[in-house]
Specification:
- The structure holds 3 protein chains of 3 kinds.
- Chain A contains 13 helices and 20 strands.
- By secondary structure, chain A is of the alpha/beta class.
- Chain B is mainly alpha-helical.
- Chain B has 3 domains: 129 residues, no CATH class; 75 residues, no CATH class; 41 residues, no CATH class.
- Chain B contains 13 helices and no strands.
- Chain B is extended, with a radius of gyration of 30 Å.
- The relative contact order of chain C is 0.14.
- In chain C, a hairpin with a 3-residue loop joins β1 and β2.
- The chains are: A alpha/beta, B mainly alpha, C mainly alpha.
- The interface between B and C is large, with 68 and 65 residues.
Chain lengths: 466, 265, 197
């Protein structure tokens, strides 16, 4: 049994503790979930268990069984799977990655071979042999990360927001793996705010807030669900407009990348002015490619397309009229102040200074980031950076706003907040908005229409909601 | 076959063909390449130079490399050849400067050929395996990890560049040549890329530490060939196990059927 | 919870070493991009000097640039971008050694434009040293070797100096955003867990 007693931790240089009096115990072969909004301390707790935190002020105890944990116990007994699978994978091939841990521990080669086979079997990746990890999907990378940790034969596996990059199929595969691990007697600790996929394997829920455990129960927390409902009900009722003009008209679009098959095939759709569209489909179905094609970043191999009145537009031609917010938009931040960041495109459009300032303030207000205007963008939190990046693309008041997987890394409250901001944008500016996402929207009533994609094709462009 | 013999896309690119040179261990190739290069440099007389040249070219073509490959590998040296020869002729006059100029230029081109053969005939994995014997693991770890992240950062660079272009940054090839727009290259691409690199370094370091990197003075290595052999055996065993029950069922079918007939009766 | 122990050469933590490795990755990526996308080859001194000096600025420890040079040369060879064979390693290591030596003499090397341009030019010129040595061994007279070296290194020196220009501004930006420490009297940088990003 894993027992944590009064664990308190403060990061170096900080005054407020990141964890305060954390106490819990977890039996072997059980699954516990630590849930709470961004910044509540879930990741810090997992890293504390794995002794990966910087030297701050730490007190409390962590025991497995009767004895306190030694460094060796922590190294071999706990396996931590980080949120971002891409930067966790250090080797180019599957076998190298899974062998990495045991090699570091000087495990004899024969035993390493057995461990590799066992670990890859547990995550259904044995058939992939010694392939290059570069070509793996997000779900496969996630499972490979688990295998790379399993090969060290831990008693406890710690998962930090494992579903953040996964689509429905990826989550199903992950769930199957976790079921298997539980049966083998491995304890599982999950830090996650998207609890829903794991409810069938979680034995215990711990609610966290501001670095403390505020509640513990055997069923999904009510407060969590209630909080979601509260925010959803606060969303402004939207007036449906009678759309008169077409913003995007695409017919039989086909797009392929060099050296690969078609990513988009015979895709046709129409997006009308002022619509809120949810572009839905699994990872790899072509959503991002479609958005990039609409934005003019990719030229289709065949088919025709008209965007905001321009036929077959190129990227530069749509500046100011079409905006695309990429996944992880904080990657694009670089200016000295939030204000300069948001004004970037406006300056490139050579707008007068007065108009630029006005639009910057308007965009920051809509994105609930006005109070951040003089801050350094790169020092903001994840959620704040996300809103600043959004403000920077809406500042030119584009006619069409495209968002590619905008919910990645956001907790449910932040997701609902984003939808609220976008709905307000449509109301105030009449912007047509398309969200591409592999998940259902947090508020299903938000969109006017769902366009579903599958294997590079648009399968239901006309499905209507509400 | 014809396509293979047409040559490679880039100089010093590995050629996936079978040849006596390909089959040599990496260490031996390194030794032969070094010896040939040194020999090329030290000869001065025409006949020994001719012999050294012939040996070099034999080494090159024994690796089943083509004339097209040779052109691709040596064309970079043409400019050097011309500059060197011109300087010799300028300094020593014509025809006194001709032979020393040609000889020196030829020696310099030939000096690089054995090393090029090494790269053309040695896979990266063999190179790394050989390096393991002489280079400390921690440096190799950095090399492997940096190599692993090449495609990752290539994608990041592309994505960041695309996102910034769509925001209006001046990053087209034509604009990149104008110094007035270099600020966009450095601010919009390099800086976000560096930020991304810092974050990735944080996460990769944690991942390595979490899996015991640096926790021991030494380390062991698995053998991919042994592992693949074990997997192949396992697959064969599994296939045999899958087919055996069918035989059992076939044997058992008749008795069961008789029982059913008996029961029905 | 020590996770900033010295990982390499009793000097670099694992995070610093990986970051330097990624600088080497960027050198090779930009070299390949210039070659493939723009059809230009040979102007590699621009980004080589930029990233060598930047590496020295981000991890202001002796040996940082040399490590980047070693790794960049190795990655180039591994990816088949070494058009002169394994000896291309010297083209990366020699300029890197010069940057590190300059860093010992001028600890705040990367915070001033003049020092960056000067060291960028000198380091870029050193790239021709390996070629000059080979020519000397092949029997070319010293004068010819010197004149040839001058002609060939002119472009490299110019691009090296241009590539060094943006370094102080980038370093200052990283410091302002608290991604690296100010290098007044401190040689240590923030650990990864303390960074804001």
């Amino acid at each position: 049994m894993l027992t944590v007693t009064d664990l308190t931790y403060t990061y170096p240089g900080e005054h407020q503790p990141a964890l305060t009096d954390i106490s819990f115990s977890i039996a072997d072969g059980t699954c516990a979930c630590f849930s709470g909004h961004s910044g509540c301390g879930k990741t810090t707790l997992l890293r504390a268990l794995k002794e990966l935190l910087p030297e701050g002020i730490l007190s409390g105890s962590i025991r497995y069984g009767e004895l306190p944990l030694t460094r060796e116990d922590v190294l071999t007994g706990f396996g931590l799977v980080f949120q971002n699978a891409e930067s966790q994978l250090l080797c180019s091939t599957v076998f190298d990655e899974v062998a990495f841990g045991p090699e570091n521990l000087c495990i004899p080669p024969d035993e390493i071979h057995q461990r590799i086979i066992a670990a890859l079997s547990a995550v259904d990746l044995l058939e992939f042999g010694n392939r290059n990890v570069e070509r793996f999907s997000a779900g496969q990378k996630q499972r490979l990360c688990i295998a790379s940790v399993l090969s060290m034969q831990p008693r406890v596996i710690l998962l930090d927001e494992p579903t953040s990059q996964l689509d429905g199929k990826g989550r199903e595969d992950l769930l199957r793996v976790l079921h298997h691990l539980k049966k083998k007697g491995i304890s599982i600790l999950i830090a996650e705010h998207n609890i829903q996929p794991f409810t069938e394997i979680i034995d215990r829920y711990f609610l966290m807030s501001d670095g403390r455990i505020t509640g513990s129960q055997d069923y999904p927390p009510d407060e969590y669900r209630r909080g979601q409902q509260n925010v959803a009900s606060e969303a402004q009722p939207r007036k449906k407009r009678a759309a008169t003009t077409t913003v995007v008209s695409a017919e039989n679009l086909a797009v392929s990348y060099p050296g690969s098959k078609h990513v988009l095939c015979d895709s046709s759709c129409e997006i009308r002015d002022g619509e809120l569209i949810h572009l839905h489909g699994e990872n790899g179905c072509g959503k991002s490619t479609l958005l990039k094609t609409i934005a003019g970043a990719i030229q289709p191999d065949s088919g025709s397309m008209t965007v905001t009145g321009k036929k077959q537009p190129k990227a530069g031609e749509l500046l100011g009229t079409v905006a695309l917010l990429f996944q992880n938009p904080q990657r694009q931040l670089f200016e000295d102040t939030v204000r300069d960041e948001v004004a970037f495109t406006l300056k490139r459009l050579n707008l007068p200074e007065k108009v630029t300032n006005q639009r910057v303030e308007c965009a920051l207000s809509i994105c609930e980031a006005f109070h951040l205007r003089d801050r350094l963008p790169l020092t903001l939190s994840f959620g704040e950076q996300h809103r600043v990046a959004l403000a920077s693309v809406i500042a030119p008041e584009p006619q069409l706003l495209l968002l590619d997987e905008p919910f990645a890394g956001l907790d449910p409250l932040q997701r609902l907040r984003l939808l609220k901001i976008l709905a307000q944008l449509r109301q105030e500016k009449g912007t047509t908005i398309v969200i591409a996402s592999h998940d259902p929207l947090p508020d299903p009533a938000w969109s006017d229409r769902i366009i579903t994609m599958q294997n590079g094709r648009i399968v239901s462009p006309e499905a209507a909601l509400v | 076959m014809k396509r293979r013999l047409m040559g490679s896309d880039y100089a010093c690119q590995y050629r996936a063909v079978d040849s006596p040179i390909h089959r040599l261990p990496a260490g031996w190739k390194m030794f032969i390449s070094t010896a040939l290069s040194v020999w090329i440099l030290v000869v001065r007389e025409p006949q020994p130079l001719l012999l050294a040249t012939a040996s070099c070219l034999l080494y090159y073509f024994l690796a089943r490399l083509t004339l097209s490959d040779l052109w691709r590998d040596t064309r970079f040296f043409l400019i050097q050849f011309c500059i060197l020869l011109s300087l010799f002729l300028y300094r020593l006059g014509y025809p006194a400067g001709l032979w020393p100029g040609i000889r020196t230029s030829l020696q310099i081109i030939l000096f690089f050929i054995p090393g090029i053969v090494f790269l053309r005939t040695t896979q990266v994995s063999s190179m790394m395996k050989g390096l393991r014997k002489i280079v400390p693991y921690r440096i190799l770890f950095l090399l492997f990890t940096s190599l692993r992240f090449v495609p990752f950062f290539a994608r990041e660079m592309q994505e960041i560049s695309l996102a910034q272009k769509l925001r209006g940054a001046r990053l087209s090839p034509r604009e990149s040549f104008q110094p007035i727009f270099w600020r966009d290259v450095f601010s919009c691409i390099i800086l976000p890329l560096l930020v991304r690199a810092m974050k990735t370094a944080d996460e990769a370091a944690l991942s390595a530490q979490a899996r015991g990197m640096g926790s021991r003075a030494d380390r062991t290595y698995y053998d991919v060939r042994v592992l693949e052999a074990q997997l192949a055996t396992r697959e064969k065993t599994r296939t045999r196990t899958d087919t055996t029950p069918n035989k059992k069922l076939t044997c058992q079918k008749l008795p069961i059927k008789r029982r059913c007939e008996t029961n029905e009766k | 919870m020590k996770n900033n122990v010295q990982f390499l050469w009793n000097r670099f933590s694992m995070r610093e070493a990986l970051l330097l490795g990624f600088c080497a990755t960027f050198i090779v990526l930009t070299k390949a991009t210039l070659r493939m996308k723009l059809g230009i080859s040979g102007h590699s001194m621009f980004f080589l000097m930029f990233f060598l000096l930047l590496a020295r600025g981000i991890v202001p420890k002796t040996g940082a640039a040399t490590l980047v040079g070693l790794l960049a040369g190795s990655i180039s060879i591994a990816l088949g971008l070494a058009h002169k064979g394994p000896i291309i390693m010297l083209n990366f290591v020699l300029p890197a050694l010069i940057v590190d030596c300059a860093g010992i003499l001028l600890p705040n090397l990367t915070s001033r434009y003049l020092t960056c341009i000067l060291i960028g030019g000198i380091a870029a010129a050193s790239k021709g040293l390996s070629g000059a040595l080979i020519e000397l061994f092949a029997g070319a007279p010293m004068k010819i070797v010197l004149v040839k070296g001058l002609i060939e290194s002119l472009g490299g020196v110019l691009f090296g100096m241009l590539g060094s220009l943006p370094v102080p501004a980038i370093i200052r930006k990283l410091q302002t955003n608290r991604l690296i420490a100010y290098s007044d009297n401190r040689s240590q940088q923030r650990t990864g867990d303390e960074s804001q990003v």
